[in-house]
Design brief:
FAD/NAD(P)-binding domain; 3 domains; five-stranded antiparallel sheet; four-stranded antiparallel sheet; binds flavin-adenine dinucleotide; oxidoreductase; membrane; flavoprotein; flavin adenine dinucleotide binding; transmembrane
Length: 377
């Protein structure tokens, strides 16, 4: 059995006047064997570990809008906990959190106005974002290219002065949701007392083993600034558990293509590259789109919008990206998630038998178009 001393980190959990402002401190502590030592010390109730996993996440960041800070606006946190339905609501932000929450309030009956600085879902493939804006705007009040000048709160009403597409407007609402970005929680951890390094945006730097710059201190999840999804932090957590406690073998994390979805109507889902990324990376590709309406299930559902977009490498037919907008996009995309994880091609998509009628037939029809294009190029 190995024993001796090792430099480790102490997370202080004092309370009241004894609460430690800098909760993580470096300290030498005893090691017993090669198992993780968990030892409760006396005094302030410190808990000592050989390994620390930092998964403290991120929190909403407030944009710099004059007057906003002195109003009782909601972030996603309050919006998720609110029990009263406001008659009207303004949502500031065009990312998935703003859209999903605003959409949910709208579905419950609030009159929701979305204020978006530039475009909605600006990180999605351009054609998907275009279709989303078109369809979503048919059912919701959306102001794009909006510059918010000032926010006030008086007589239980939010007053928001904006310039939208060059025109000044004053909007009023009972509730205001601000979901215009997030920031890492690293500033709340007292990391300045440690050698754990952060990047210029404040996210924790880790290597390919998810180790921080301090031995035996790992980090995962939003606080890395890589991916901001529940399923990606789950993947990282499972990786750490497997390599450290099951296999006990140091091996680097290898992310398969990381998918995501936006749970609005229409739904959006994505895996792999966008067309804009392929252009920027100078990859020779083909791009095809197949509408929901061109499949039996799409017709039966009377789909008048939505499509699947498939991007494949011209030379090999390898699928590089898949995007879906429409009913159950988050389910339909799984066909492509598996395919891309297995490094599959357009031909692979056409090898299997699809149930008729079913939504994945839209994917098959996109693959047929891609095959034709690959043969003629
Ligand atoms: C409205 C909303 C909807 C979302 N929808 C989806 C979705 O549909 N699908 C999806 O994949 N992802 C979604 N996400 C993103 C997803 O929630 C995050 O990516 C995921 O939770 C990140 O996990 P994490 O463990 O890194 O951080 P978190 O889940 O944020 O957990 C961090 C934890 O650390 C705690 N903490 C922070 N500081 C300290 C401290 N100093 N000491 C002790 N504890 C601390 C926090 O209280 C929190 O409990 C959504 C996020 C929001 C806000």
């Amino acid at each position: 059995m190995r024993s001796g001393f090792q430099t480790g980190y102490v997370r202080s959990r004092g309370s009241g006047a004894r609460r430690d402002k800098n909760p993580i401190r470096r300290q030498r502590f005893p090691v017993y064997g090669d198992r993780i030592v968990r030892k409760k010390a006396g005094g302030s109730g410190d808990i000592i570990y050989i390994r620390i996993f930092i998964a403290a996440g991120a929190r909403p960041a407030a944009p710099n809008i004059p007057g906003l800070e002195s109003t009782p606006y909601m972030t996603s946190r309050e919006a998720l906990r609110r029990t009263e339905l406001p008659k009207s609501m303004i949502v500031i932000g065009g990312g998935f959190i703003a859209l999903e929450l605003g959409f949910a309030y709208s579905a419950f009956g609030s009159d929701v106005t979305f204020l978006v600085r530039n475009r909605m879902l600006k990180n999605e493939d351009r054609e998907i974002a275009d279709e989303f804006e078109r369809v979503f705007s048919e059912n919701h009040r959306v102001l794009l290219h909006t510059d918010i000048q000032k926010v006030e709160y008086s007589n239980n009403t939010f007053l928001v002065d904006v310039v939208a597409d060059g025109k000044p407007l004053r909007l009023e609402s009972e509730a205001l949701l601000v979901a215009a970005g997030i920031r890492p929680n690293t500033d709340l951890l007292g990391l300045e007392n440690t050698d754990v390094q952060t990047d210029e945006r404040g996210y924790i730097r880790v290597n390919e083993y998810l180790e921080t710059s301090v031995p035996n201190v790992y980090a995962l999840g939003d606080i890395l600034g890589r991916y901001f999804y529940r399923h990606s932090v789950n993947f990282e957590g499972e990786f750490l558990f497997r390599t450290l406690y099951q296999e006990k073998k140091r091996s680097p994390i290898e992310y398969p293509p990381v998918p995501h979805a936006v749970f609005t109507h229409p739904q959006v889902a994505k895996v792999g590259k966008t067309e804009e990324e392929l252009i920027a990376e100078k990859i020779d590709y083909i791009s095809v789109k197949n509408p929901y309406s061109a499949s039996a299930t799409g017709m039966a559902r009377l789909s008048d919008s939505g499509f699947i977009k498939l991007l494949a490498e011209k030379k090999t037919g390898r699928v590089l990206g898949a995007h879906a907008i429409g009913d159950e996009a988050s389910n339909v995309i799984h066909l492509f998630i598996l395919l891309m994880t297995m490094n599959g091609t357009v031909d692979d998509l056409l090898r299997m038998i699809y149930i008729h009628p079913s939504l994945p037939e839209i994917a098959r029809n996109a693959a047929r178009k891609a095959k034709e294009l690959l043969q003629t190029n």
